[in-house]
Amino acid sequence: MTGMTGLEAMVRAVFEPDGMLSGADPHYKPRAGQIEMALAICEALQHKQALVVEAGTGVGKTFAYLVPALLSGQRVLVSTATKTLQDQLYGRDLPRLVQTLGIPVQIALLKGRANYLCLHRMELARSEAILPDRASVRALAKVEKWAHGTRTGDLAEMPGLDERSPLIPFITSNRDNCLGSECAHFKTCHLMAARRQALAAEVVVINHHLFFADLSVRQSGMAELLPTVDAVIFDEAHQLNATGVNFLGQNLSSAQWIDAARDVLAAGLTHARGASDWSALAALLEKSARDLRLLFPRESSNRLAWVQEAPQGVDGIEFRSACEQCLAAARQVSQAMEPVLDSAPDFPRLQERLMDLASLVERFLQPAAPGLVRWAEVNSGVRIIESPLDIAELFQKQILWGQAAVDVPLDTGWGIDPDDQDTPTSLPPARTWIFTSATLGNDDSLSWFTEPCGLTQARVLRVQSPFDYKKQGVLLVPRDMAPPQDPQHTEQVAELAEQVARALGGRTLVLTTTLRALKQIGEHLKQAFEGDASLEVLVQGEGSKRELMERFQQGGGTYQGGQAGFVLVASASFWEGFDVPGHALQAVVIDKLPFPPPNDPLVEARSAALQAKGRKPFMDYFIPEAAVALKQGAGRLIRRETDKGVLVVCDSRLIHTGYGKSMMAALPDMSRVSDLSLLLPALQRLRQLRTDSV
Ligand code: SF4
Questions:
Q1: Is residue 668 part of a domain?
Q2: Which of 20, 161, 176, 556 could form a disulfide with 353 if both were Cys (CB 3.0 to 4.6 A apart)?
Q3: 177, 243: one domain
Q4: 192 CA closest ligand 1 atom index
Q5: Does 120 sit in the ligand 1 pocket, CB within 6 Å?
Q6: pTM for the predicted model, two decimal places
C-alpha cells in the first residue's frame, strides 16, 4: 500500500471482504473492477482531474463513485439522465450508503421546475376557467387539497396524479412564466425552497437537463449550483451530448405561442379585466401559431431538413409571411399590455416573453450561423430548432477555463469563444469532472463519447463486466437469412422471433431499427400467438416504458402459477435502460445493425462536418454510432450473474463485413452459433429456469 493516500486507504477498507459494505449487506462480494474504478475516482477527486469511466454491466459503478465522493468530504453534484436513476440514488442508494459509512452528510434532490407545484400558477388556474377539460378541474381541486400538506411540492409525491395529466402545465412554471423575486409566493415557493436546500447540501442529485439549465443564467434565471461544487459526477453519461445539444439549441414551437396566448388571457382577466379585449388578443396570438403550423405537411412526424430559407416541403415566401404574422401579433399584444404593466408583475414578464419569442422568429428568418444546424419537427404542433452539432466547445470551456455561467446569446451561436472578453480573468478553482456509463464507445479511447463532449484530453478507464458471458450467453447470427435490405427480411425476423418466443414461452425482447419493422413484427407475433393464454405479445406504445417493463418483469415464473410469459416488440428508447434481470428476459432479437438514419438533418450535418475536416463519415461516425447502439441493445440480455440467455442479431453484415467484425468485437464475448436449430435444445433448457427459483 505504499504511496496510498488517506482517501484511497479509506475507500479500499470499505470495499474489503470484511469491510463496511460486507457488514451492511450479506450478499456483498468484492469485485476487482469496482475497486479499480473507486480508486481511479479517488485520484480524480484529489487532483481535480477529468475522468471518463466505462464500467460494464455488473461492475457496481454507483457505489464505486459514491463511496469516494462521500468519504472525500467534497461538495459533489451527481447528475443522471433519467428520473428513475435520480430517484433511486436519492431515495435508496445514497441514504443506504450514508448510513453504512456512518458519516453526517446532507443530501438533496433537485428536479426540473416542471416537477414542482407553482403556487402562483395554481392560483391563476383556480381563478379563471382556462383549464382544458372537466377532468382537469377535478384534478385541480385535489391538487389544492394536497397543496396544504406537502412539504416539497414535488408533484411525483401526489397520489393519483398522472404524470401526463393535461393539468400539469397549468400548475407548474417554466422559465417564461415564472415571476421570480417579483412573485407574491416567492418566500413559500417550492422550487425556490428546493434550490435553497440544494445549495446547502453536500451531495446534490440532479439530472442532465438541469445541469445544462444551470449553466446558462439566461435559461434558468440562476447559475448558482455549479460554482459551489468541488466535483461533478455524470452517471448515464452516454446521454450527455444528446441532452446538451437539445438543450443548448434554440427552439421555437407553436406550443410556446399557444401557452403565451393562454397566459395573456389568464393574466388579463385576473389582473386587468376590461382594460383590453384579452380574448381577442389571445386568439390573435394563437391563430398566428396555428397558421404557421398549417404550412407544414400534415401527416409528417419526422424531422424535416432545413438548408434553404425554409424547412423542406415548406414554401419560402409563405414561411416568411407566416413568421411576420407571428411578429405582428406579438407586437400588438405587447402594446396592449403597456398601460397595465404596473398592475401585476405578470405583464412585464409576459411582455418580455413575447419579445423573446419575436427575437427567435427573427433569428429563424435569417440564415443559420456556420456550425449550427436547423430542422423542424412536426406532429400536432411544429417545433423549429437550431442547434450546435455537439457540446465539445462548451465542455472544453467549462473544464479548461472553469467558467461557471455561460450565457447563450440569441444572435451568435454559443458565444463561448475562449478569446471572449467576458472570459473571467480571475478564474474560480477548477473542479473534478467524472463521466461514467456502461457504454461509452467501441474503442479504447472511447472516442464516440469523448470527441463530441470535448473530452479527448481526459483520462479514460474501461472496466470490464464481471459476468462470464461465454457461459451466460449465446450469440446467433443466422446464416440463411435474407440480407437486411431485402423486402423479405422483416418477415423472416418475425418468423424467427416467433420460434424463439415459442421455445421459451415468451421471455423475448425484439428490438427493431424502424417503426415500420416494429409494426410488421408486432402484427405477425400478435397473430401467431392469438388465443395462446400462456404467452402475451406487447408492442411499444401500449403503455409507458416503465409500465411495459414492469409487466414484462412478471413473466419469468411458471404459467401454472397464473402468469403468462411476454414478448415485447420495441424500438428506439428501449434499446437502452430496459432493465429486466432474471429469467423473465432470456432472448433479445435485433432486426438490423442500428445505423443512424442517413437523411436525418442532424446526422447529415455531422457527416458534412466530418467530411469538411477530411474525415470519413462512415468510418468515423456511422460505425461507432451503430456499434454503441448495438452494444446497448445487446446489454439488455444479461443483467446479473445468474442470468442466462440468447442474443440473435438478424444481420449477416455483422460477420461478413470488415466493419461488422469491428462491431462484433465491441459486443460481450459470448459463445456463437449460426443456426437456430442448434439453439433449440438450449432454449428448452432455459425455459425450465424460473425467476422464482433464482
Ligand atoms: S416564484 Fe415562480 S415558481 Fe415560484 S411560485 Fe412564483 S411563479 Fe411559481
A1: yes
A2: 176
A3: no
A4: 4
A5: yes
A6: 0.85
